[in-house]
Amino acid sequence: MRRYARTLIVIVVLVAVSATLLAVNPISVGGFQRGGDTLLGLSLGLDLQGGSHLEYEAALEDPVTGEKIPPTADQMDALLRTIQRRVNNSGLGEPLIQQIGEDRILVQLPGVEDLERAKAIIGETARLEFRHRVLDVERSIDGVSDGAAIDIRLEMEPLPTAAPPATSSPESVATSTPESTATSTADAMTGDEGELAPVLVIELTEEAAEVFEGVVDQMRVSLDPPPGADVSYLNYLKVAVQGSTSTLTVPYAPVALLPTGQAIPVGEEPYIERVGTSTTFKLAVWKAGLTAEDAQTIFPEGSQISIVEVLGKLDEEIGLTGEDLERAYPGQRHGTGLPIVNVEFDSEGTRKFGELTTEIAGTPDLLAIVLDDQELIAPTVREPILGGTAFIEGQDFTFERVRDISLLLESGRLPIPITLIKEESVDAILGADSLAKSVVAGLVGLALVLLFMALYYRAAGIVAATALVIYAVLLLAIFKGLPVTLRLAGISAAILSIGMAVDANILIFERMKEELRAGRTLLSAVNIGFNRAWPAIRDSNVSTLITCAILFWFADTLGAPVVQSFAITLSIGVAVSLFSAITVSRTLLRLMASTPLARRLSIFVPGGRSDLPKQTAQAAASPGA
Amino acid sequence: MIVDYVGHRIWFFALSLLVILPGVGFLLTAPGLKPGIDFTGGSTLTLSFSAPVEQEDLRLSLADQGQPDSIVQRMEEQVYFVRTKELQEEAKNLLIDGLVADLSLPSGAESVAPVIEVPEGRSAISLRMTQEVTEEEIFGHLDRLGHPDATTASTEDGSYMVFTRELPDAERDALAADLVEALGDPIKVLSFDLVSPAVARETVIAAFWAVVMAALGVFLYLWWAFRNVPSPFRYGAAAVLALVHDSMVVIGIFAALGVLFDVEVNTMFLIALLTVIGYSVNDTIVIFDRIRENITLHPNRSLSANANLSISESLGRSINTSLTLLFTLLALLLFGGPTIRVFLWVLVIGVMVGTYSSIGIATNTLVAWESGDFRRLFGLPRRRASSQAA
């Protein structure tokens, strides 16, 4: 008895741990989380568990007209494959992906955990761009610069009564509340109301006014950082006088610059406004701190004033995108430990990247990295990068986010953008009602098997029944723990492996029966029976494992997820079944053989006492044998 | 007394041919193995019902309408997402009509007494509906019925009020009846689309090649495992032959069912077939192991004698193992849900054939090979007997 104590303890501990793993639902210990709404907290596939039903529509638009362009069959095909790759690599479980109609995609995912992440992984276009960003680029404005304006002149206007003259500190401007009224452009030397304020009046043609309106609008928009970025790239107007070196640069409205580079508007009142619906604009230079005298000095009577636009940034797309990447994988930055995405370019990409960084290195120009029109980061470049590897940092990068971005980059951007048009929850493909019945029926079937084993093989059969229950518990616990997502293929493989486990036990018992009939003691019958059954058990299980390995490898390469799922589950089942036969059944049998029960050989043999050779039966019947 | 199984091997082979040949015949006749919607794609419908419907009833009704393998998923209490074979507009309408009749669904709308005050100069109709209806729908019908200026309001208890210009009672009631008919469709089709296959053809082809390579792997392993026995490669070959035989029987039977009874095969069939192959190989190896043991114990006996002995010794185990599996499968078939029936039947047939083939085909092939049956079959001269055939 003592010899087997150690093995027995190991078995008991394993069973206890497994049972606990299965019974506790959900489990959340440290970083280990399992379980949810499903039976025993097992991870189930879509055919066994309900989940999310997402419908996407192709959202390809003509950039000019905004009209929808129907996608081609090839595009839809590529779209399906990309989404399939993404979801399969994301650990979200195996999806059902089908094309509906001409331009829609149906994605069904098991379970509803992490739905937001799933939607992001499926729906993000993931277009990564590397741009050459030049700062503060001057541009002339059609119809305004180079003397094309009808007139640009300095005028004096009375200040709005409530406001003190603006000084150059933004704070005071913020506290003022001028009402801007469109006064006529006639002379404004009234003097009585208050101080006189210098204003540049810009008269333009109809066409030019439209263009200039657009420029002013862009200036307003530029106050905010581009999506995803911290830094603002302000557009300015640069006002110059011919023959003089003095210039005036004016943004849309007064701003204060934060240390991060973000510009904060500090007043509502813009510097430049259109006068009603006319083609005249007024640039209130007094708001920038210019007094009347200063203004008259800078802009003397009759001087030629010209205005050009200064763009905060101008991005040049050089055609270096995510398509030029060979690999993308998550990592950590040396030093700060912050999450980053490491990228490696392919040969063409390395060349382009080298050129780009060579151009930018040492200049104030930036390398802007944009993902789906969201800025990730735009650093300066110190030295040219010729090795073709780089890393990308982002403002709100978390470790999960860099993992997902790497996934998206590796699986490729979506060939066409898509939008989510429907989101529902849906129940199992095989039908929740059908499954509930099947689970019950399955248990009934198993009970029948155990009963049969006990009845036919008697005491040994009870050992087998115990071993099988232990086997089932261990198997399910492993499925839950790894975790293995169970689909119908997996269940089928599990059934087969249970069958093989039963078979192994039966092989042992049949041999035992032969040995007992030949007149051996129970203990030696057990040992010999096991030894002689072992080659068969070994060969069949090993060949099944080989089959699984080959199936798995081919299914992985050629793309048959159903077969893969089957192969994995079967290999786990076979491995546990080997353990169960070697350790559990054998130990339990040997245990029994060393108890007084061993004398009553008849209970180990299907035929009962009549099956045993006469002497043994007699010996068994009398004590002290 | 040992039965001479292998002596009568001709009968076993004959029986197998009897089952396989027709099967192959059916396979070659169109459509052979009838691919289901997993492989061909079809139509999807989102149906909103006017009353709660049990999934079981819907499934049965769909089967009656000629869609036995449709996939039914419940979305909400009264909304189902259904995948069927490809349907044209007319076929869809027929299907819906059939469902309505079968499921005895009530109208989805009824006219009730108004619960709020009717403003001056207006007439009011109050409708209670059991399905979601959009305002557009209501206005659309109102337009059609000649009341473009009507307004609607929804009340707290879920009913809709329709306010029209003042109408005489009879006209108002007629309008109410029209609206009830228009809005009260027992089944509203919320979406109707064509859908692509869920499983690409590539997957099936990939699965086929995976199995072929796996069979090769088994063959090689057996060649190695039986290296101490004369002619070891025959064992691998015989095992693979048994595997092919079992697959052909199953495929043949389902081809026949497909041609005769329109039974379709889906991914489930593929999975079950893989399982059957796994079981077949396993079973065959156990018997071969016995043969190897007996040959080692009795090297001077003929292969036929050893084979017969091995079969007798293993019969108990073979039958018991297959019985245990069959118990479980039968329990599932009898008490389990309807959706995995095809899957279970393949397994039941497969287990029985797998057990049969290990004895009837695999072992007999070994003996036949040994006895030179194949040579005789191909008219080749008998080899000098270095082996001992019975």
| Through-space gap between termini of chain B | 17 Å
- Measured as a percent range, the helix fraction of chain B is 55-70%
H/I helix tally of chain A: 13
Q: Biggest interface, and residues per chain?
A: A-B, 74 and 79 residues
Q: Which band does the percent of strand residues of chain A land in? A: 15-25%
Helix-strand makeup class of chain B: alpha+beta
Biggest sheet strand line-up of chain B: 3-4-2-9
Low-confidence stretches of chain B: 386-390
State the secondary-structure class of chain A: alpha+beta
By DSSP, the count of extended strands of chain A is 21
From the spread of the alpha carbons, the general shape of chain A counts as elongated
Biggest sheet of chain B: strands, sense, closure? 4 strands, antiparallel
Kindly state the mean pLDDT of chain B as a whole number?
A: 83
Main sheet: strands, sense, barrel of chain A: 6 strands, antiparallel
**What does the radius of gyration of chain A come to?**
40 Å
Distance between the termini of chain A: 20 Å
Low-confidence stretches of chain A: 162-193, 615-625
* Tally of separate helices of chain B: 12
What key phrases describe this protein's structure?
heterodimer; A: 625 residues; six-stranded antiparallel β-sheet; four-stranded antiparallel β-sheet; 21 strands; 21% strand; elongated; B: 390 residues; alpha+beta; 12 helices; rod-shaped
Task: Characterise this structure.
The complex is a heterodimer of chains A (625) and B (390). By secondary structure, chain A is an alpha+beta fold. Helix content of chain A is 42%, strand content 21%. The two termini of chain A are 20 Å apart. Chain A contains 13 helices and 21 strands. Chain A has helices spanning 2-23, 73-89, 115-123, 170-175, 206-221, 292-298, 347-360, 399-411, 432-481, 488-517, 522-558, 561-593, 614-621, and strands at 27-29, 32-34, 51-58, 96-100, 104-110, 128-140, 151-158, 196-203, 236-241, 247-250, 255-257, 263-265, 272-274, 280-283, 305-321, 325-332, 339-345, 366-371, 374-377, 389-392, 418-426. A 6-stranded antiparallel β-sheet of chain A has the order 10-9-15-6-18-19, with helices on one face. Chain A has a 4-stranded antiparallel β-sheet with strand order 4-5-3-21, covered by helices on one side. In chain A, strands 7-8-14-13 form a 4-stranded antiparallel β-sheet. In chain A, strand 11 and strand 12 form a beta hairpin. Chain B contains 12 helices and 10 strands.
